[in-house]
Design goal:
Length: about 290
Amino acid sequence: ILEITPHRIREAIGDGMVPIVAGSQGVSTDKDVTFLGRGGSDTTAVALAHALGADACELYTDVSGVFTTDPRVVPTARKMASISFDELLEMTAVGCPKPAMRSVEVARTYSVPLHIRSAFTWEPGTWVIEEDPTMEQAVVSAIVPDTSESKVTVSGVPDRPGIAAGLFRALADADVNVDMIVQNVSAEGVTDISFTVPNGQAELAARITAERLPEENCSVTTDEAIGRVSIVGAGMKSNPGVAATMFETLASNGINIEMISTSAIRISCVVRVDDVDGATQALHQAFALGES
């Protein structure tokens, strides 16, 4: 989005009308009609809210707000009254389906408060706002389960400069969306690299990898029976021991961790797909997210 010209909307509002705007589309610099892609309607709404100087942007969906986890997995999941932009961005990045990640990015960039609420009731939803540095943050705010990715493992990769760069450049050129990446410690000049991709791109990623490293005697395998469970919370930045609690909880429930990825306010673990629901339930209880 390069520019928004809302003068016709302003005129309609000034005339006492409620304008209905077709979302997810615009006009390019060449005057072609273009589309904003997945989640474009949410993004359109947020961008218009900014351009019109609105106090907030309300996004009406089929859910009543943002929950501490998927209520279908954990019946005691609690709807949050508010959450920070950064926390929701992390949640959408690791599998939370709504709202669209791009709309949250635009809202954060322009400081547009979001109110995510149900299209079917008038009950309050969840406010998405800037983090208040004067307020104490919850250590963990949400648990996000995700079963939409597969794992690709390359074994016997020569440990020398340029190998990983060439591989991931080839994947990027083929529009393969690589998420988590883990490389083992080198032994005898070779290493193993594992990475996750969307389920529909696993075979393509494996084929590109095999073609990119044919002379290296590498073996490439795919594993679609994996899932990911992530914990997200702004308070993790200043509270030690969160990772230990997560790993201990998974271990005590007999759940093996295959990959780990972290950010300042998120920890993600790849586990067997059959363990995702159990891991989500155990972590939700361990961090007492069902309590008001």
